[in-house]
Design a protein that fits this description.
The protein has 6 helices and 5 strands, in the order H-E-H-E-E-H-H-E-E-H-H. The chain is α+β, with helices and mostly antiparallel strands. The chain has one domain: Roll (CBS-domain). Strands 1-2-3 form a 3-stranded mixed sheet. Strands 4-5 form a two-stranded antiparallel ribbon. A hairpin with a 2-residue loop joins strand 4 and strand 5. It is globular and about 45 Å long. It comes from Bacillus chungangensis.
Length: 144
């Protein structure tokens, strides 16, 4: 059975409680991601998603200089690197989330996304080939 540590992303960009929503949005743009974990002295304390920014900042007419703590999601669903991909899939389905921070002793060690599970669990070579062709087709269409 595949463990989370085998598929998680370990090079995760983070922000701190001292950062503004603007700082987070710039980092999301630079890294091309939709979620940034928030850490305080290396301890994971929250996450902020692009959706959080839209719903809790822009839609509430907050300034982009608002602090991360005012916009982030603090009620975290996390997983251990020793957990299985099946456990991750179950948590994601149960809580309707696409990304899980991976923590050890409250420290962020990685993140696993729904896409990581979907690609990893494709065991049929034809399915992998089809996924590859779909990606190539989309890239070709974007260039024209």
């Amino acid at each position: 059975m595949t463990k989370i540590r085998e598929i998680m992303t370990t090079d995760v960009e983070t922000c701190t409680l001292q950062d503004s929503v603007y700082d987070v949005a710039i980092k999301m743009k630079e890294e091309n991601v939709g979620v940034i974990p928030i850490v305080d002295d290396e301890k994971l304390v929250g996450v902020i998603t692009d959706r959080d920014i839209v719903l809790r900042c822009i839609a509430e007419k907050e300034s982009s200089s608002a602090m991360v703590a005012d916009v982030m999601s603090g009620n975290l669903i996390t997983i251990s690197s020793d957990s299985t991909t099946n456990e991750a899939a179950h948590l994601m389905a149960e809580h309707q989330i696409r990304r899980l921070p991976v923590v050890e002793n409250d420290r962020l060690v990685g993140i696993v996304a729904l896409g990581d599970l979907a690609v990893r669990d494709l065991t049929d070579s034809q399915a992998k080939q089809a996924l590859s062709e779909i990606s190539e087709t989309n890239e070709t269409h974007l260039q024209h």
